[in-house]
Fold this sequence. Notes:
There is one protein chain. The chain is an alpha/beta fold and 257 residues long. The protein folds into 2 domains: 2-110 and 200-244, Rossmann fold, CATH 3.40.50; 133-199. The protein has 11 helices and 7 strands. The chain has a 5-stranded parallel β-sheet with strand order 2-1-3-4-5, with helices on both faces. A two-stranded antiparallel sheet has the order 6-7. Helix 8 runs antiparallel to helix 9 (182-194).
Amino acid sequence: MKVLFVGPTLYKLVRDRTLDGCPEIERRPPAGQGDIARAVLDGATVIGLVDGRYEDVAAPWHKEILYAIQEGVTVLGAGSLGALRAAECAAFGMIGIGRTFQRYASGELVDDSDVAQLHGPDEIGSLPLTEAFVNVEATIDRAVATGELPIDEANRLKGFARGIFFKELCFETLATRYVQNSAGATELRLCLERNRVDAKRRDALELVEAMAALPARRRAQAPQWRLAMPAIWVAFISNLTPRGERISTQGVRVVTT
């Protein structure tokens, strides 16, 4: 079983159920704490992390990712929180995909707000309500490439965009705050909309393609490291197991009577 955690980054595919065209991949909503570990216990062989929750609930725990890798699950990350977690866990075997991951891994990006965006509930396809900074930045770069923005102006615009709180960032807000007159703001907004680049979506689609190409089985070879099993982790993972089972201190599922 292949499990993909995605929401606003692939909004239209989620809304239109286009991902159903990949029957080998089970789409789940953006991951919160416990969801990755739960997928491992459900039998996942490949896990793709794109979108995650981190404000209204606790974010996916790094230890969940290490637990999945230890259990032989191939874990990939891209686009949004997945790119950030992949950069943080690459040394332990998580596979990062796409440009956003590369930028986090190199240290070019360090702030999680660079990929954050507000979105609606999963029931309506996780409709994006704001624009992620990495998308705004890529859009400005395209406007430079098409000759619609001079490079100096683009650099000032990027700096201004970075100063807008991620819960408020969108093309309209950026344009109206950057340009004082309404005609100029409208012109800038239309320029950005014409040149829009969805960097997160591009990376997420690359991840979906990679997941589809992977075999639906767990790896037999153990990693070079061993997952520590403190009492808090044993309690955490045991709370996710089916009734009648528990997790030993070695990470083994044990059936009890």
